[in-house]
Design a protein that fits this description.
Elements: E1 8-9, E2 12-13, H1 15-27, E3 36-37, E4 40-41, H2 42-47, H3 66-81, H4 84-91, H5 116-139
Antiparallel strand pairs: 1-2, 3-4
Helix pairs in contact: 1-3, 3-5
Length: 141
Amino acid sequence: QQESGGFASWGEECAESAAAVTRGLVAVGIDPNTMAKNGNTVFAALMSYQLGDKSFSHIKGGKSDPMATSQALTAIGDIVYGNVFARVRDSYTPGEFEKPGGTDQPTLPKTGGENLLFYLAGATLLCAGTLMVRRKQLNHK
């Protein structure tokens, strides 16, 4: 962990590294706001890459970057709603498969339930963010 609270990969601190660490912490049940160095949290470091148009840059002072934006939004979504893989894992109960109508084909357990609205909202936000970043890139060419 760097002095800023963020993380470096290949010798360079970046938004994607902070997002990956944030997602990992959420996945194992650790609040990212507790991961700090010199009072600087990994979440605060991640948010320091956000630009005025709400997209994220790869490096501080950089321009809008689709991958950094996507990974940062996914990490923020994990903080708000919990890690998607952990939710799927935790929703499965062994022996929950049923064989409908006497067939040999089992059905998959239901996952998502009332969270479908949150999944759709998250997917919509990711698509909208990606489109905004792409439009901005095309306008600068």
